[in-house]
Amino acid sequence: MFSNPLSFLLFFEDLSDPREDYKVTHSLSDMIFLALCGAVANCDHWTEIEIYACNHLKFLKKYVSLKNGVPSHDTFSRVFSRLDPVAFSECLIKWVDSLQSDLAGQGVHLDGKVLRRSFDKVAGKGALNVVTAWAGDLHLCLGQLPVEEGTNEKTAMPKLIELLELSGAVVTVDAAHTNKSVARQLRGKNADYVMTVKGNQPKLYEIINQKFEELSVNDFQHPKVRRHTTRESNGGQDEYRRYTVFPAPAEVKQLGWVDVKSIGMVYRERTVNGKTSQELIYFISSLPPKVRTLAKHVRDHWKIENQMHWSLDVTFAEDTSRIRKGEGAANAAIFRRLALTILKRYTDEKMSIRSKRLTASWNSENLLRYLTGNQA
After folding, report:
1. Taking the complete model, does pTM exceed 0.70, yes or no?
2. N or C: the chain end with fewer CB closer than 10 Å?
């Protein structure tokens, strides 16, 4: 990931230290490096990072000075509770941009996640919600922003999109973020979109629903209809999906959806332990009505849940984390996503993320290999 572990810190040089100069005992860059190493090496709390650093001091001093020793967990908590998470996120985005990953045709999935135990009743603070961009096939967290108190994901998502370099990407969003302004913003970023359509866009939903009802009268026997079926079986769960796509009708374009080219329908039938459920989903896209391409992007939207959110909760214990002081929860979330990206993109070893974290904690050479991306 980094040709030299310290090259990562170059992207955080301009990050403003929230402390007054005369109170600084441990440099901010040293603390960021220790927190990153700890997040990769199976540390989920500031206390664990302090213990890890104390036990790997010889290795860590090869890369950072630590002239005043290892910061205490209280120091980690105090500094990262005051550090601006938006500015920190912008530094992370600069690092991702430096990887020069080609996003042409790549799916980028935008979604929010609530850190359920990050609330603080005493301080009158609710649970933190963050919005994240995840490039599923690249195993790359492109960026994250916290949702400000008193607002919601709809406010934070456009701000995140504005920060990201998305040229050539195909961005997928769920129905909560399906709106004309987001579509315009994505097209302005030279990105395509695939957006789920539900009742919160009543006119659009009605037009799409009516069009597919008309097509169903003749069993979708229309020269411009394209259909594709998939079947999957996994862990006692069977899923059948039928995708149907059609060129966007004039009525949809007249509503003002920028560059819309396709409408689509997914019929989903899922059987778990003998019980079957059914679901019908509509979507629109700026991509042409090529059913297999659209089917992949619709299906891949779940990668942000399966690859990122699940790993963060199960492997990084994010949903049970009690880091909650100030901006600490938002900044700890950034370290987790960065660590997850580093570990997922290291594919030389066929191990789970949990196993990689454990091996990084046992042996500093393993940690170094993950950080640099060097093969075993």
Report:
1. yes
2. C
